[in-house]
Write a structure and sequence with these properties.
Number of strands: 7
Radius of gyration: 17 Å
Number of domains: 1
Largest sheet: 7 strands, mixed
Shape: elongated
CATH topology: Maf protein
Order of helices and strands: EHEHEEHEEHEH
Distance between the termini: 11 Å
Number of helices: 5
Strand content: 15-25%
C-alpha cells in the first residue's frame, strides 16, 4: 500500500511512552485521548480487563476518525490477586513497591488495532513476567525520589531507573512492558496492508 493510499493512523492514547514507541515505526500518526472508564468489571481477570480496555479505547476514538486505523492499548499489573495500577502519588508508589518486593508480577498489555472504516479489529494480550528483587525501604525511597513513575502501572519504569529494581523480565516483546507491544502491532499493521519496510 502506497503512503498516499494508507489510511490515517491514530493512537488512542496521550501516553508519551506509547507515542515514543509508535514513533519508532516511522509512520505518521495522531495521538488522541480516549474517553474510557477504566474500572475493572466485577470478577474480571486482569488480563481480560487490559484487552477489553484496549478495544474500548480504540472504539472511543473511532467516531471522530471513521476511516482510520486506530490503536488502543492498556496494561494491568497483577500478583496473587492484587492489581497494581498507576500509583498517582509518592505514597502509593512506595506501598506498591513494598508489596511487589521479592515477588513475580505479571504486566498484561492489551493491544487492539481497529479499522474504523470496516469495524474489523485485531485484539491480543501480551504478558510480561517481571520478578522484583527483594527491596529495602531505603532503595524504594531513593528510587521514588529519583524516578518519576507515578503514571506507570506498578511504579517501575523498566526503561529508566526502574530496571535496577528487577531480577528478571520474561516475555515475547520488550516493548510490551513499556506499554505498546510493537512486534504484535507490526503483525497487525501488515494484516491491514501497511508496509513497514
Amino acid at each position: 500500500m502506497s503512503a498516499a493510499a494508507r489510511p490515517e493512523i491514530v493512537l488512542a492514547s496521550t501516553s508519551v511512552f506509547r507515542q515514543e514507541l509508535l514513533g519508532r515505526l516511522r509512520l505518521p500518526f495522531q495521538a488522541i485521548a480516549p474517553e474510557t472508564d477504566e474500572t475493572p468489571l466485577p470478577n474480571e481477570h486482569p488480563a481480560a480487563t487490559a484487552e477489553r480496555l484496549s478495544l474500548a479505547k480504540a472504539q472511543s476514538v473511532a467516531l471522530r476518525f471513521p476511516a482510520a486505523l486506530i490503536i488502543g492499548s492498556d496494561q494491568v499489573a497483577y500478583c496473587n490477586g492484587t492489581r497494581f495500577g498507576k500509583p498517582g502519588t509518592r505514597e502509593n508508589a512506595i506501598a506498591q513497591l513494598r508489596s511487589m518486593s521479592g515477588k513475580t508480577v505479571i504486566f498484561h498489555t492489551g493491544l487492539c488495532l481497529l479499522n474504523a472504516a470496516t469495524g474489523w479489529f485485531q485484539l491480543r494480550g501480551i504478558p510480561t513476567e517481571v520478578r522484583f528483587r527483594t527491596l529495602s525501604d531505603q532503595e524504594i525511597l531513593r528510587y521514588v525520589d529519583k524516578e518519576d513513575a507515578l503514571n506507570c502501572a506498578g511504579s517501575a519504569r523498566s526503561e529508566g531507573l526502574g530496571i535496577a529494581l528487577l531480577e528478571h523480565m520474561r516475555g515475547d516483546d520488550p516493548n510490551a512492558l513499556i506499554g505498546l507491544p510493537l512486534i504484535a502491532l507490526c503483525d497487525m499493521l501488515r494484516a491491514e496492508g501497511i508496509e513497514l519496510l
